[in-house]
Amino acid sequence: MKTFQFVIFSVPLLVIVGLGLALLLNSLPGKIRTFFRTVYFIPYAISVSVISIIFLWILDTNSGLLNNYLMQLGFDPVPWLTKQPFAWISLVLATVWWTIGFNMIIFINALNEVPEDMYEAASIDGASAWQKFYRITLPSIRPIMLFVVITSTIASFNVYGQPYLMTRGGPGDSTEVLLMGIVQQAFEQRELGSASAMAILMALIMIIVSVIQFKVSNATNKGGA
């Protein structure tokens, strides 16, 4: 259930923010676009342990950078990593910041494949920016969006490093995701059979979710056609 919570919280943001950044960067001049594309992609090249250390430094309740600023402004410190819903907010924030560059690059490449003639024809017909996005951009990049949704879902199901390093599964066991349970079963309790069964179940769940997403996307495409 906790893994499902993380998937539900993180995947929409990974898709929507990734697409939003891609649209924003595509509207910038070439050199500026290249600079910001590199800036947003750099975190994806950093290991999860480094990302977790950075966010621990920022979000620590007692000595974190963010709480220091809040206290200087007269606010009480926020228990980002020790109470809910702040722990989930912190984990999702760290994950989005870490991985959003990958989805952004994929969406940028997809947007660059949309023929400019279609936008020019729409402009001549008096279409607004929203109409161009809804009628031209979204249908053109729908297969890529499905790919991003499925890969983001699989990656979120496999979350381990962020909750293990940032919250240790806490507060209580509220952020103890499935992979943490599998590792505990296999290496701490030495119950390899149970760990293997949990891993197989997790793989089946990811396959089922991916198939459902694919079927829903196909049904939407046929309905739109």
Key words describing this protein structure:
225 residues; mainly alpha; 10 helices; transmembrane helix; MetI-like; ABC transmembrane type-1 domain-containing protein
Describe the structure.
The chain is mostly helical. The chain has one domain: MetI-like (MetI-like fold). The chain has 10 helices and no strands. It has helices at 2-26, 30-41, 48-59, 65-72, 86-112, 116-124, 129-157, 161-167, 178-188, 192-224. Helix 7 packs antiparallel against helix 10. The longest helix has 33 residues, at 192-224. The model has no long low-confidence stretch (mean pLDDT 89). The chain crosses the membrane at residues 6-26, 38-59, 86-108, 144-161, 192-212.
CATH superfamily: MetI-like
**Residue runs with pLDDT of under 50 for 5 or more positions:** none
Give me the CATH fold name.
MetI-like fold
Number of strands: 0
Helix proportion: over 70%
Figure out the total of helices.
Answer: 10
CATH class group? Mainly Alpha
CATH architecture: Orthogonal Bundle
The tally of domains stands at: 1
For the CA atoms, what is the radius of gyration?
21 Å
Strand content: under 5%
Membrane topology: Multi-pass membrane protein
Protein name: ABC transmembrane type-1 domain-containing protein
InterPro entries: ABC_transporter_permease, MetI-like, MetI-like_sf
Pfam family, one: BPD_transp_1
Element layout with pairings:
Blueprint (H helix, E strand, L loop, with lengths): L1 H25 L3 H12 L6 H12 L5 H8 L13 H27 L3 H9 L4 H29 L3 H7 L10 H11 L3 H33 L1
Subcellular location: Cell membrane
Protein name: ABC transmembrane type-1 domain-containing protein
Organism: Paraliobacillus quinghaiensis
